[in-house]
Structure to design on (374 residues):
């Protein structure tokens, strides 16, 4: 348990580094909370500025170069995060995201783009303020990456503690964290890994499946808590889900045996005229190698992001109606809050379902590659 518990977390460390190297996009400024965002939109001198619910909602879902905590009056309280850039002309740069002043300032020839195709990303600028064509390589620790490290620290703390309890309490009933974690571990092992992969090889893949299950579940639950260090939309970020799906894809292809590849390129149950002269079925099966992990990536990303967007949409109804009439805003607030609470409870269920679906589909792919489970 202890050894597998430690090994099961190691793949997720690679997830964080993969996401760091993927050049995360962030909005042009750190969100100041829904109410603060609405207030900021109305406080400008431009009379044409209006409430933009879509912009505010998306701004709360996408990634950031700093971690916003709260807003008091006109002051935004946020935690700056490390910015790590590599310029082809000037080399590496390390500084804190607070140097950008929430996207309003430039620093050492870099700034956060406010418009265009690169909006929200760090770009390099000339002395005259013009944006250079070549973007710097961005290895910054964004909010999502920081949230990944937070969840990894929690997972390590939980499983190291549980492993130590097992060593101290040999042949004793589970207690404390053991009683919470053990049923989930046994569920993944006995209800997902064993029947999907087969009795002979399931133990080899159980650590990875446990890692994926607990990583997704924990981050789904943390995303529902709007208090630091929780509240990040980690599993609603497509770069994170892509990294997880990429692990499943690589393990599946590496594990593939002769039976697996024969079923793809020369399926025996398919008539010859569907394989010669045009390899229609083999082509479909080959495309399926890539569509399966792609679906894994999109399903998790879309479900978690949609939950956050819908919940924020109901919450924004208060300000939309309040913008038309203050009394209407007060009237809709009760209904809006009730719907928000209902969706939050629904998201608790979705958090478990999505962790389960991603894990069991990964296990099924591994079982198909091994060719032992019919």
């Amino acid at each position: 348990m202890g050894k597998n518990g430690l090994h099961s977390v190691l793949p997720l460390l690679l997830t964080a580094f993969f996401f760091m190297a993927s050049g995360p996009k962030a909005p042009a400024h750190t969100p100041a909370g829904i109410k603060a965002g609405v207030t900021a939109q109305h406080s400008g001198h431009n009379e044409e500025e209006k409430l933009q619910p879509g912009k505010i909602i998306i701004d709360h879902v996408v990634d950031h170069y700093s971690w916003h905590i709260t807003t008091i009056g006109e002051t935004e309280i946020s935690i700056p995060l490390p910015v790590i850039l590599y310029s082809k002309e000037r080399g590496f740069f390390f500084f804190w995201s607070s140097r950008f002043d929430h996207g309003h300032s430039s620093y050492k020839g870099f700034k956060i783009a406010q418009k265009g195709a690169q909006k929200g990303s760090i770009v390099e600028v000339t002395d005259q303020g013009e944006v250079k064509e070549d973007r710097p390589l961005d290895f910054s620790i964004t909010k999502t990456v920081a949230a990944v490290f937070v969840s990894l620290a929690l997972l390590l703390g939980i499983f190291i503690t549980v492993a130590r309890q097992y060593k101290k309490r040999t042949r004793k009933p589970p207690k404390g964290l053991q009683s919470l974690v053990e049923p989930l571990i046994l569920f993944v092992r006995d209800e997902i890994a064993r029947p999907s992969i087969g009795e002979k090889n399931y133990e080899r893949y159980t650590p990875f499946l446990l890692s994926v299950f607990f990583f997704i579940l924990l981050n789904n639950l943390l995303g529902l808590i709007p208090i630091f260090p929780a509240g990040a939309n980690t599993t609603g970020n497509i770069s994170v889900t892509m990294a997880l799906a990429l692990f499943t894809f690589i393990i599946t292809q590496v594990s593939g045996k002769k039976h697996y590849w024969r079923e793809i390129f020369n399926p025996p149950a398919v008539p010859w005229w569907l394989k010669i002269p045009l390899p229609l079925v083999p082509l479909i099966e080959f495309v399926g190698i890539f569509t399966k992990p792609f679906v894994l990536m999109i399903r998790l990303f879309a479900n978690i992001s949609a939950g956050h967007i819908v919940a924020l949409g109901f919450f924004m109804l208060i300000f939309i109606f309040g913008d038309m009439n203050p009394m209407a805003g007060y009237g809709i607030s009760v209904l809006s809050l009730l719907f928000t609470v209902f969706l939050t409870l629904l998201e608790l269920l979705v958090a478990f379902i999505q962790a389960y679906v991603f894990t069991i589909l990964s296990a099924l792919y591994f079982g198909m590659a091994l060719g032992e489970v019919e």
About this structure: Residues 262 and 374 are 15 Å apart (CA to CA). Residues 25-138 form one domain. Residues 1-48 have pLDDT under 50 and may be disordered.
